[in-house]
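Hi R.,

Quick one: here's the ATP synthase subunit delta sequence you asked about.
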Amino acid sequence: MSLIAKRYAKALFDAAKKARVLDEVGEDLQKVIFAISKINKLWLILRNPSIPLLKKRQLLDNALCNVQPLVKNVLFLMLERKRELEITQMAKSFEQLVLNMLNIKEITVTTAVMFLHEDKKKTHKSLEQKFSSELKINWVVDDNLLGGIVVRIGDRFYDGSLRAQLVRFAQTTTNTA
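And here's the predicted structure, written out as tokens:
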């Protein structure tokens, strides 16, 4: 994540916290990212240097009529400073700041197959107990896994995949033989 995106996110976070609108700003940022990712024409216009800033502001203002003024102001500032490409990273950095404030850890769980809702709930509860923390889990399905799960939390990596278990088994048997 770029330092520039982190700075904008921190400024927005501090302002939203002071105004007591963190949840609303977080939701609005998700709407903005969704709109930018789904409306390809909007993203192309925002990135186009030949389109005047005033036109970009009007377009963004019309597209985001129900968005918190704080969010609009940061987006307008980013447009003015030609930081359009940092908007998505800024939103991710903002979300990370909120999670850190709430002491929620974000983890990625990779599985070989899609877990059912009940299995996700059980795994979520089990992992929260293991890490003694509230977790936000990003679920990923990787067809290359034979089975098991792989958990990444921050810079730590727990490999409970079938392949890793087989490698550990092979190492154990060759060491004892």
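The first strand starts at residue 104 and ends at 111.

Cheers,
M.
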